[in-house]
Fold this protein.
Amino acid sequence: MSNNIKYILSILFCSIMVITGCKKDDKTFGELTTPDKPVIDVQVVGKTAAAPYGDSTGKIIVTITSANAINYKVNFGESATDSLGTKNVWSYSYSHTGLKSFVVTVTTTGKGGVASTSATTSFSVYKKFTPSAELVTMLTNDATKIWKIDSTAYGHLGVGPANSSNPEWWNAPANDKVGLGIYDDEYTFTKTGNLFAHKTNNSIFGKKEFLTDFDPTLTGGGDYTLTGATAANYTDGFGYTGDATSESIIFFGKGHLGLYVGAHVFKILSRTATNMTLRCIGKDGNAWYIKIKAK
């Protein structure tokens, strides 16, 4: 009798162990739902209307929204290395100097490693570039300095393809734009506070399709002289950008030099204490050239 009881108890114990073991091994993910395509919000730290590229620290904050996401893979566009983690808010500091555009790419994954469609967003961020003392002196005279278009010089305005460093398509002859409201402009750079003042004399010459930055009511395109209140004198902030082999002047608002083509970054091709040749990329994607001289 006792042997039968022991036998029955042994069977019951084994059954319980089998049932318990089955429950422990029953690991499932549940419903595998693909995360929504990420929505990426990039906040450039310190960005304001007066400082559209940030506070010059080169820092950004990325917030990602993706329903059903568990893990996040983020590439900040500065290297091939991805950042991985479970958080949806990321901060990043760029190592470049000057003004540069980046593309942030995000992929999210959900249960079971099901991945979302990748999403990207692009933006520009400025990190303070320390210019040489010589450059600052040249541009501002260590106080205030006024510049004008070198209207008598051949090629004081020019244009060419963006992949060239020469105005292959057009070079303005001396005084080619007399009476169009460009040769009487004065550009004043002040060292303290990096202030820029553009004396327009109530006229700004440029491409009509881009002068909408000053007067949104404009229509059409081509060479155009904007006059009146929308072309009044204005002030702006400026800074320096570049690297070991190049120097550029950047304006943080509507600031520009020469014919207005929607550009606000001007690379210095050559300079002396009294003359500069500069290059910019217009909104049309072409390379535009301007020669200015100290007043």
Remarks:
- Helices lie at 2-25, 133-140.
- The first helix runs from residue 2 to 25.
